[in-house]
Amino acid sequence: MLSVQPVSEAGFAAMAEEWRMCLEASDANPLFMSWPWLYSWWETWSQVLGMELVLLGVVDQQGKLVGIGPFCRRVLVTPAGIRVARLYMLGNAWRLAPTVRTEYCGIIARRGYESDVTAAIIPALEELGWDELVCSDVPDDRLENLRAGGFDERRGYRTIHRTDDTGIRINTVGRFGDWLDGLGKHTRLKAFNRRAYLKKQGELVFLGYDEGRDEDFFERLNGFHRNRWGKPAFDREALRFHRLLLQRLHLCDGEPAMSLVLFNGRCVSVLYDLLVRGCRYNLQAGYDEEFSTKVSLGYLHLGFAIEAAFSHRTTNAYDLLAGTGKKQFYKSHFHGEAVHFSTFQVVRSPLLKALYGIQAASPPFVARAFTRRVGL
Questions:
Q1: 245-283 burial, b for 16+ CB within 10 Å, e for fewer?
Q2: Is pTM, for the whole model, over 0.85?
């Protein structure tokens, strides 16, 4: 007995509290599926990317919000002249443009309503005009819920797997020393033991950053990234997004947890973390790559931050999120639980299903040329 109601842009802007209550009663991610994150993303990139909001609210007979389907749509024309109406999960613009990465994507549903909410949203989506739906960074548990809701080949859909990624989430309930003991000796050296070496050389300080000075913080972060990667961590739009997010973070019971490492009074490393409902999320890091050949500042700073998470009485996890390092998947060294994410397309256009079939059946070099020519 649930009904689906489209939400306008004005309604999206005004539903922060209602969204928070629904999200808190669900198992959806409290940061990435929050109103502050998704509305800030929409406000930053919707016009830049030419997106149309497809936000579906699911309410019960009393009018209480019990589920949210966060989507958006864009019609594009490929270089071959093929018109494609593509649905995206809100917070991502797959193969369209770089934005901040939104992980743990999925439908939001109050506990006990999961299957009913999905069963209501899928038919509502089917009534809309679209050729394919792109689901980005969906964790395994959300993936099964989407498939169970009706996006399977028995109903005429074709699911095309695109990428898998892995994140690491550290349980910080217990003793920091026990976690350290579980690390490999090289990781323990870099994340903790090198503190003693640096303290013999000078003054080593780990401290939280005043959230009121976020512009200076982001300038330092971008400066470290330019030196290391040749480009800033956050471009103009991403900076706007993060500043909006920090202003609204309290609306999902979150708070900034940015930090610095100083050596002899000089900032040599910054860490951009957010703390939301018991989990500390590591969004970005930057450090002086030429600081010392004996010290890995990235590992060292993460060691400080993870220790702070163990010490914080209401924090139960430190999430390193998805993504690899410059040379290796360093996050796997931190003795945490692996979180698996999938990005895939759900295709219902007969033409697109045929084209993707040709693409999949072709040798790699032919498939690449076909993809460039067709533009899919």
A1: bbebbeebebebbbbbbebeeebbbbbbbbbbbebbbbb
A2: yes
